[in-house]
């Protein structure tokens, strides 16, 4: 049997030197799918620890998770709080810059609700988004009173 070995090199997301376009600026920071999934997990599901992000149903690879977390920290969207005794206690918390993305995430979710026939409407947050978005936003922000 022939064995084939393939080596992948994970490169950090390419940064532009500068841009005058706010859309390009935003997409350079959080425009890849994994960064948005991580931001969703932090802002909507209040995940804080590496192992919690790793357990997301989307199944992000460890090397990509590490790279994206670092990109979000470097971009000022997350604060990395080192664990006292070991790395497993390292916590990620949103900055105000990240909290300001909650309405953007809601807009993306509304768009997905409208066009994705496979959306799981049994998820309570989906019902809450449709029926009382303002209260949902206020409830989520209460999770981050230490940030504000």
Plain-language structure description:
This protein has 148 residues and is mainly α. Helix content is 50%, strand content 5%. It has eight helices and two strands. The chain has a two-stranded antiparallel ribbon. Helix 7 crosses helix 8. The protein is globular. It starts with 21 loop residues before the first helix and ends in a 6-residue tail after the last helix. The N terminus is likely disordered.
Q: Give the radius of gyration.
A: 17 Å
- Strand tally is 2
Main sheet: which strands, in order across?
1-2
Oligomer category: single chain
Work out the helicity level.
40-55%
With helices defined by DSSP (H or I, 4 residues minimum), what is the helix count? 8
Shape: globular
Largest sheet: 2 strands, antiparallel
H-E order: HHHHEEHHHH
Could you name the ranges where pLDDT drops below 50 across 5 or more consecutive residues? 1-11
> In what range is the share of β-strand residues?
5-15%
Query: What separation lies between the terminal Cα atoms?
Result: 59 Å
Query: Pairing-aware structural class of the strands and helices?
Result: mainly alpha
Mean pLDDT across the residues is 87
Jot down its keywords.
single chain; 148 residues; mainly alpha; two-stranded antiparallel sheet; 8 helices; 50% helix; 5% strand; globular; disordered N terminus
